[in-house]
Structure formats: structure tokens, C-alpha cells
Amino acid sequence: MRKRQLAAAVGSVAAAASVVVALVTSSSASAALPPPGSLGTLTIEPATGTAATAPVVRTSQGCTPDSDSYIAHVFGPGGFADGLVATFGLQDVNFSTTQAFPVQFTKSMTDIATDNNTTVAAGTYVVRVSCVDSFSQTTTGTFTTNMYFTDPGHYQANDPSGVPPTTTSTTKTSVSTSQPPTTTGTSFPATTTSTSDTATSASSLTSTTMSTSDSTAETVPAGDGSGGTGAGAAQSVGTSVPQRTLANTGVNAGYLLLLAVVLLGTGGVALIITRRRRAARWPSK
């Protein structure tokens, strides 16, 4: 009887010890996962892959202004509990303090596990990117996201035990109502009148030159242009008076004057000769 009671007591103690070990192990595994990132989250690209994939994680924003580099770690079950480096130490490729940037794993999950003498197991892993001041080796902020291995060879970004997130995108419809501009232009006809009078010179009493000429030029506007309603007219009227010559009536006054002088001279000479002859005829006293 006592032996049975002793055996039952030993069995109870063993069961209790197993429960304690399980709780301690579970607590240790949970404690190994880092807290959510202080600066934001990460997006895994591609969202699904294999353990041989070297994924890219993209930060939700830039690092802090007092940092100049980053480093990535992966936390998870087994040998990943303390966090294994997923990049070749500190990196500054694509680093930014003003906008989101991508972080490329330099190894696949299988290679990370192999280099650290462990294996990839099914479970939840946490990827953490830390912003670092390379001079002081101080972490200034972190980004995190979960990576779920449904089996040792395949991962996905969404929690397999939860409902996949539904993304609803609404595209704003922009309705633009525009009326073509109507331009109405009215231009008054521009009239240009030019008159040229030819100076009349009287070089003789019998010669008069007068010329009169009227010329009119009118420009009719073209039809309406396309793309608007417009009315325009331009008219140019020019009047000029060219020379016209009337018929000559008589000999040029110059010739008449010269003839008169010749005749007058001839008459004077004849008069002198006549007087001398008369004087010669009269006897002297």
C-alpha cells in the first residue's frame, strides 16, 4: 500500500516538474522576442518565400537624424532566440533619415542558421532593423515585423492563424467641368487717307499743269477664326493726286520774250540809222 502511494507521489512530482519546465521554456522563448519597433514597422518583400530566400525589408520611415547606419537581426525559436545578424554588420546602403528605405538580407534564413550551427524551425520570427550611430555604436531607434514559418522551408508575412488583412482602396474621382473660353473682339475699321497735291508751278502764262488722281484701297477682314467668336475689320483708303498735263496753247513765253528783245533791238538800230540819214540830208548853216 505504501509502495503504491509512494509511486503515485513520485508520478505527481514528475508531472509537476514537466509542467514547470514547459512554462519556463515557453517564458524564455516569449522573452526572447523583441518589443515592437520604436520608430515603426517593416514590410517584407516578397511577402511569401522559402528558407533559401534572402528577402528585403522596407522601413516605414527614415532613421533618426543622429544615426548614420543600420543593422538587421532575426529573432525566433531555437538558435534564433538571442537574435542572429541578417546583414554583414553595420550597413549604410540606401540609408536615409528623411524617407523609408530598403534593407537587403545578405543571407537567406537557411544560411543564417547554418552559420550559427542551428536550423530553421516552424514558428514566429521577428525581424528587427536598428538605426545606429556608428561612432558611438549606440542604437537610436528600431523597426520590427513578424515573419511566420508555416514549416521549416516556407515563410509568409501574414499571420497564418489570423484573418488576412483586407485592404480597401478608394480612388477619388475628380470631375472637372471646363468651358472653352469665349473671346469676342471688336476692332473698328482703321481708315488711312493720304492726299498728295502736286505743286503747280507757273513757268509760263500759257502753260498750266494740274493732276488729279484718286485711288482707294480697301481691305476686307477674313472670316471668323476657329476656337472663338470674333469680329474684326480693317479698311485702308488712300487718295493721291498724280500729275496731269493740260494741252499747250501757244509758243513758250521764253521764246516770245527773246523774239521781242530781238525785234526791239532791231527797231532801235533801224531808228538810229534813219535819224542819221535825215540829219545828213539837212544842209548845215
Account of the protein in words:
By secondary structure, this protein is α+β, with helices and mostly antiparallel strands. Among the domains are: 32 residues; 124 residues, Immunoglobulin-like; 34 residues, no CATH class. Helix content is 24%, strand content 20%. The chain has three helices and eleven strands; from the N terminus they run αββββββαβββββα. The strands form two sheets. Strands 1, 2, 3, 4, 5, 6, 7, 8 and 9 form a nine-stranded mixed β-sheet that branches. β8 and β9 form a beta hairpin. The longest helix is centred in the N-terminal third of the chain and has 31 residues.
Topology:
Elements: H1 2-32, E1 40-45, E2 48-50, E3 56-59, E4 69-75, E5 84-85, E6 102-104, H2 109-115, E7 123-133, E8 138-151, E9 154-156, E10 186-187, E11 231-232, H3 253-281
Parallel strand pairs: 1-8, 10-11
Antiparallel strand pairs: 1-3, 2-9, 3-6, 4-5, 4-7, 7-8, 8-9
